Amino acid sequence: MTIFLLFSAAFILPMGKLSDTFDRTKIFITGHVSFTLSTLMCAIAPNIHSCLYSELYKVFSLLFVFVTSIAILIENHSPKIRGRLLGINTATVYLGTSIGPFLGGILVRLFGFRSIFLFAFLVGFVASLVSLFLLKKKLK
Questions:
Q1: Which of 78, 62, 73, 59 is nearest to 27 (CA)?
Q2: Is residue 116 within 8 Å of 108, Cβ to Cβ?
Q3: 23 vs 2: which has the higher pLDDT
Q4: Please, what is the angle between helix 24-43 and helix 48-76, to 10°?
Q5: Which residues contact 36 (CB under 8 A, 6 or more apart)?
Q6: Termini Cα distance of the chain
Q7: Which of 74, 88, 126, 131 has its CB surrounded by the most CB atoms within 10 Å?
Q8: What would the pLDDT profile of 92-113 be if each residue is shown by its tens digit?
Q9: Dihedral angle at the C-alpha atoms of 38, 42, 47, 50, nearest 10 degrees?
Q10: Residue 128's closest CA among 37, 17, 24?
Q11: C-alpha to C-alpha distance for 124 and 103, rounded to whole angstroms
């Protein structure tokens, strides 16, 4: 968590500028794919140092997603439903924040600490596929 908070605080403004300068959709997809790969790297890391470096890469990748997700929602939907979409987005973030520690504890207890990364890899893989499918028109 400390790594995540430090990187978020340090790089959120430069990432916002990057997303304003370049295509948000490509940055969003790149973030999802990078998150998925870095999570797999954490799961197969041979030692704690490799895992921490992979975690740094993962946090950096998540910044791509965090910075662009709300901007993509706002620019692609009418003002009529923006409030509802932002509410769903916020609820989803807080639901994950609430369920994550509980689910993580169960996974660690039953399958060991690497299971957290494998589960996150599966979620990231599905999210990457869904993002590619839903945003494919914007990529062209």
A1: 62
A2: yes
A3: 23
A4: 150
A5: 121, 124, 125, 127, 128
A6: 36
A7: 131
A8: 989 988 999 999 999 999 999 9
A9: 20
A10: 37
A11: 16
Residue with token string 């998540």: 62
Q: Which H helix or E strand runs over 76?
A: helix 48-76
Q: Which of these, 45, 62, 69, 65, lies nearest to 4 by C-alpha position? A: 62
Q: Convert the pLDDT of each residue in 59-89 to its tens digit.
A: 889 889 988 988 888 888 888 999 999 999 8
Measured over the CA atoms of residue 101, residue 103, residue 108 and residue 112, the dihedral's sign is: negative
d(CA 129, CA 81): 24
Both tokens of 136, joined, read 């494919």
- In a 10 Å sphere around its CB, with 0-12 CB exposed, 13-18 middle and 19+ buried, how is residue 92 labelled? exposed
> Among all chains, which residue has been given the structure tokens 């605080």?
9
Please count the other Cβ atoms lying within 10 Å of the Cβ belonging to residue 123: 14
